[in-house]
Amino acid sequence: MINIAIVEDDDKAAETLLGCLNKYRHESGEAFEAVRFAEAESFLDTCRRQAFEIVFMDIEMPGMSGMEAAAKLREFDKKMVLIFVTNMAQYAVKGYEVNAMDYVLKPVNYPHFAIKIKKALDIVKTGENVEIIITQASGIKKLPVNNLFYIEVQGHKLLYHTVDGDEGGYGSLSDLSEKLKRYNFLRCNNCYLVNPKYIASVQGFTVLMKNGDALQISHPRKKAFMTELADWLGQGNFI
Length: 239
Hints:
Helix content is about 30%, strand content about 30%. It has seven helices and 15 strands. The protein has a five-stranded parallel β-sheet with strand order 2-1-3-4-5, with helices on both faces. A five-stranded antiparallel β-sheet has the order 10-9-8-12-11. The radius of gyration is 20 Å and the shape is elongated.
């Protein structure tokens, strides 16, 4: 279960955010729970004992501001997905200093909110400590999904490119594509299944991976690949 925190001192604004989360949960079928905190201090105290994957943080609050709370949060939690909630976008720009994913402007607009929460949930799901079992000549082996850069077809075998090195195995890339769909892996051509988390950039028909590899995008798959990547980034269709 994914846990979401809302840190918001204004009751009406907190109710709006909770309402948006409930609507998105109903529409998407996603499983998550949300807890509201009226001030930053209680949130920080709680999240030292209880794990949250996503936090919506109001910037302007009495006492400790959201920006100050975010800085303290990053002292002990580097992974929590942080989304600022603010009346003024210029305040949110400083969010990059504390590795904020994005910001939501008040008054909260549901379609805009839905894009942000989908992106946040996708990031959390891609980072889940889930393993897949691969078949090798010597037996089977488990690989953490989060460690996969991409999977490549080589003849009748599969090559798993991971942060710990390459691993060979047997199987079907189409079958793996179905298994890894919920973790947002993308097909850029018939030979590659890519973890979007490790995409550094896309230049023309080339995907540059963060490990330095360059993968070709096939012409037939280009539009679908870019649309799916844009959806994962939460930026809409940028083709």
